[in-house]
Design a protein that fits this description.
Layout: H1 12-25, H2 54-63, H3 81-104, H4 108-122, H5 142-154, E1 169-172, E2 175-179, E3 186-188, E4 196-202, H6 211-232, E5 238-244, H7 246-252, H8 254-266, E6 271-274, H9 277-298, H10 308-319
Parallel strand pairs: 4-5, 5-6
Antiparallel strand pairs: 1-2, 3-4
Helix pairs in contact: 1-2, 4-5, 5-9, 7-8
Length: 320
């Protein structure tokens, strides 16, 4: 998923409003329809991403002692341009999550089936790592394996580091220019001067949305802030976040899905791929990375061939 261009480059004040209002109104619609005692069936709205109304936006701001004139005109109570934009963004965020993202997220069984289909068709040589769980939950990291196989099958023979065990470094004039604070899950073609890096958040077999899952969102935010600062220096390392497991993200972590959509539009990540979306989008992205690597190689200065006198001098040095 790419960001909607209408909600890009809106400034930090816009996102300050989005975060504060979301926190106090709530990310998920918890309102239940009237039902007889003992019924707990999901209603039409309950459990979906919430769209705050203008009165709810104003009430949230008043509730923390803030003014509302920047979102509602005092006399007419009509929305200001910022108020309209906020309302439109909340509606967009809810629509894309409710109607698109939820359908893309897989459970363990669906991911396992897709993993096995790709492995039997592609005969991969790339790493297919195990998950970090123990006991009966121990097994292949299905989503990571799917991603690795898709990258390998579309990389046209170029190298890829599927598990960098070092920090990402960007150089200038053959010297370190920026080094990220933490390791990422993958880098293309290598951790030094990559054209693309990515984070993978797959959480099959979990029963709750724990702190480890939440930390994963904030880790991607930290990486994104550092890479955004690099873009301001004229260096664009593409940054991707790939997440899966329907129960974890939709059943328990819908508020964090909202924050991921916010992060995407704040420019901290170039694209987010949800579940099965990697099948459609990742091959095209890898082909773009290949083109970037090859174009970068083609403009590199040619290596100067040694002159005949230099060759003779080197040979004399070896003889002596």
């Amino acid at each position: 998923m790419k960001p909607n261009e209408r909600f890009v480059d809106l400034g930090k004040e816009f996102w300050a409003n989005v975060r504060l209002i979301s926190q106090h109104v709530g990310y998920v619609d918890r309102r239940k329809s009237k039902k007889t005692a003992g019924e707990h069936r999901r209603s039409g709205k309950e459990g979906l991403i919430r769209v705050p109304t203008l009165p709810e936006i104003a009430s949230a701001l008043k509730g923390v002692g803030l003014g509302t004139s920047h979102v509602l005109r005092a006399r007419t109570h009509d929305a200001t341009s910022l108020g309209s934009l906020l309302a439109d963004y909340f509606a967009y965020r809810a629509r894309v999550l409710n109607e698109f993202v939820e359908r893309q997220l897989m459970d363990k069984q669906k991911a396992q089936t897709l993993f096995q289909q790709l492995r039997s068709r592609l005969y991969p040589k790339c790493p297919l790592p195990m998950n970090k769980q123990k006991g009966k939950k121990r097994g292949p990291a299905f989503f990571t394996g799917i991603i690795n196989m898709l990258i390998e099958s579309n990389s046209q023979g170029l190298p890829c580091d599927y598990d960098p065990r070092e920090l990402i470094s960007v150089t200038k004039n053959n010297q370190p220019f920026r080094t990220l604070a933490r390791r990422v899950d993958g880098a293309f073609p290598s951790p030094v001067n990559p054209v693309a890096v990515w984070e993978i958040k797959e959480y099959y077999n979990t029963k709750t949305f724990g702190s480890r899952v939440a930390d994963g969102v904030y880790e991607s935010l930290l990486d994104g802030m550092e890479l955004q600062e690099l873009r301001e220096q004229g260096i664009h390392v593409r940054h991707y976040l790939m997440v899966d497991d329907h129960f974890t993200w939709w059943g328990c972590g819908r508020s964090y899905l909202c924050r991921i959509i916010d992060m995407l539009h704040m420019g901290h990540v170039d694209e987010v791929l949800f579940g099965r979306e990697v099948m459609d989008r990742l091959p095209a992205l890898v082909q773009e990375w290949v083109s970037l690597v090859r174009s970068r190689s083609s403009i590199a200065p040619p290596t100067r061939r040694p002159r005949a006198t230099e060759i003779r001098r080197r040979l004399r040095g070896k003889v002596t």
